[in-house]
Fold:
Amino acid sequence: MTFSGAKLALFVGSDLLVILRDEKPDIPYPGYWDLPGGGREGGESPQDCALRETREEVGLIVPPDALIWERSYLRPLGRMWFFAARMPASIQSQVRFGNEGQCWRLMAPDAYLAHPKAIPQFATQLRLYLQDKADKS
Structure:
């Protein structure tokens, strides 16, 4: 399957783990709140890409069975994958921030969706996940 990359909406307890992007003018959305994830390496699957990037960016090993939702969508650079996963609030103490971005934090999903510096396509995918979850409740 051809795809460019994958992102993960990682819920730590009831909050979303977000990363403040670097203020580099040569990257998309400098200074915006991002989600773990990034570009595909080699022949990895979308799931493997999202989990590897999460491990590299915040030091968390998210087991594949923690993934509870997935969807692909098209972007100018090709097909992207968006996943949602839930982990217990206690894993917050295990976060080890990597070398991409300025900082990380936990943010209520509604606060992310309303934030003027939420990356638009990720906010859209997060809304789809939350709506899908609400429809199944």
Notes: The helical segments are 46-58, 109-114, 120-136.
